[in-house]
Amino acid sequence: MSRQPTIEDFTDWVQSHLDKATEGARAAIQAIERRRNAAGCFRSGGTIIAVFGAADAEVDRGIAAALGALNSALQRGQLDGKSLRQETEDRLRAFVDAIKETIKPERYLSWGPEKIINERMAQFDSKLDFNLRQFDVGHLRPQEPDASPPTGNSINIELMAGGAVQQGTSHSTQNVVINVNIEAAKVALQCFEEALSDVAVPPDVLAKIRPELDTIKAQLAKPKPSSVILAEAGRSLRNITEGAIGGILAPHAIAILSALGLG
Fold first, then answer.
1. Residue 6 gets which letter from DSSP?
2. What is the C-alpha to C-alpha distance for residues 137 and 140, in angstroms, rounded to an integer?
């Protein structure tokens, strides 16, 4: 004869899914950091965007699993509903805190915008509060999670609203003789294009960025790149990105300028 379920059984079940989501976030963040470090793009806004996107995806997964388990337990009616609801919220709040610790935002504060990073951290709590409210009023009823929580990682990259740190001189127009570091410039271009894929760039802004990137690429492919053309395209790219989507792409443009001997 099977025994009656207990609150401890329920919380263990919920915790197993939350542990999987926490581990998924940790693995995804480590993979992002390895990949971007290998590409020479680690200290960039793109890394911050990707890390928070990966963490956000696992927060979504954990919340859905916990509330799905709660929904099923309430429907079965074998345990006290108030106790189930409170245990679920307690576990979820601890889970969100664990995700924040996994991100380790202090690593990014020296080269990312503190205000935006703090806002993104606060959004995890806001998301949890929103989902709990929606569940309580009956607008959210997730399915109970499978017996074997998924181990794969899904990275959902979202726009990080706000800006990155801006450096250097804006709107310089003087012509200069430059010493181009071809390899460094190619790496900087690769990092810039990775960042482009990580954020939702408005079409009109993208239409301005692409010609400048194409110009720089074309010059770098020549035996003797034109310093005048590179300087013009590089500074134009910086000026465009400083005013676009909160300046999140500006550090990448500055990295290109530096590799072109214009930093």
1. -
2. 8
For residues 107 and 44, what is the distance between their CA atoms, to the nearest angstrom?
Answer: 12
- Nearest-angstrom CA–CA distance, 144 and 158: 26
Q: What is the mean pLDDT of residues 218-229?
A: 84
The total of other beta-carbon atoms located within 10 Å of residue 207's CB is: 10
Please give the Cα distance from 13 to 33 (Å, whole number): 31
For tokens 């992002």, the residue is 32
CA-based nearest residue to 237, from 259, 223, 221, 39 = 259
Work out the pLDDT band at 251, boundaries 50, 70, 90: confident
56 near 156, Cβ under 8 Å?
A: yes
Q: How far apart are the first and last CA of the chain?
A: 75
**pTM score, two decimals?**
0.60
State phi, psi for 10 to the nearest 5 degrees: -65, -50
Q: Could you give the C-alpha distances from 26 to 30, 32, 51, 182, 258, in angstroms and in order?
A: 6, 10, 10, 35, 33
Burial of 178 (0-12, 13-18, 19+ CB in 10 A): middle
Tell me the C-alpha distance between 121 and 130, whole Å: 15
Instruction: Please calculate the CA angle 13-94-199 and round it to the nearest 5 degrees.
Output: 105
pLDDT, mean over the chain: 80
Q: Which amino acid is at 259?
A: A
